[in-house]
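User: Predict the complex with farnesyl diphosphate.
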Amino acid sequence: MENLDLNRLPKHIAIIMDGNGRWAQEKGQDRLYGHYHGVISVRKVVEAATEIGIEYLTLYAFSTENWDRPEAEVTGLMVLFVDTIAKEVPDLHKNNIKLRFIGDLDMLPPAAKKALADATEQTANNTGLTLIIALSYSSRWEIVQATQKLALAVQNGALQPDQITEAVFAAALTTSDFPDPALMIRTSGEHRISNFLLYQMAYAELYFTDTRWPDFRKEHLVNALLDYQSRERRFGKTSAQVQTND
Ligand code: FPP
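Assistant: Here is the predicted structure with farnesyl diphosphate placed in the model:
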């Protein structure tokens, strides 16, 4: 932790929390047991991100594709989301954390939708860490719905096609209120982005670790940040140009 340069932190970290199922199966347990332990890691990582001074943290909790998992796992996850959110909101609020949710939330059961809306409203005026939970989210879904929104605006005459700039497109995405992630972490040994923030991660540094999500703790986050700080972010420029800019 003392080796971290607090002036060079990524403003926004996105995490694919992978490996709950394998972690549980390795222990001879049900997959849901892994998800319950994954919640402990969520808590630890949110605490650490707050302490370190990260401004935005996005967690990929449930993808559009995850709806195709066995029904018992999907139902169990929905119950876990609603219970965890209801239980954690008072503490998140006390710690000045703002909760936001991105994804096709209309797919969620009514009780879950209500819990998310309440949590968002309750923490809306907080000014600390913005914790974004991606639920029923997929990047292709998001890009298609943004395109539909813009096409409708063109059809209505509110927008000309040549007015669709990168900024206008980004504003039609569910992440319009947040900066692009500068660092993406994926746990559990998979080296993929899997339909997560594809448009937003154009220049994100990607960090992969073999650690399963239920084992992920502050020290793993700090290691990812140290790795991030050892890299040179050039955004398509030359090394010399970037160093002059510094
Ligand atoms: C991926 O592991 C994990 C998920 C699909 C669910 C993640 C959910 C949590 C950690 C709970 C978070 C709760 C809140 C409120 C944010 P996997 O099941 O794909 O694992 P595997 O690849 O080993 O099978």
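Strands lie at 12-16, 56-63, 98-102, 130-137, 183-186, 205-208.
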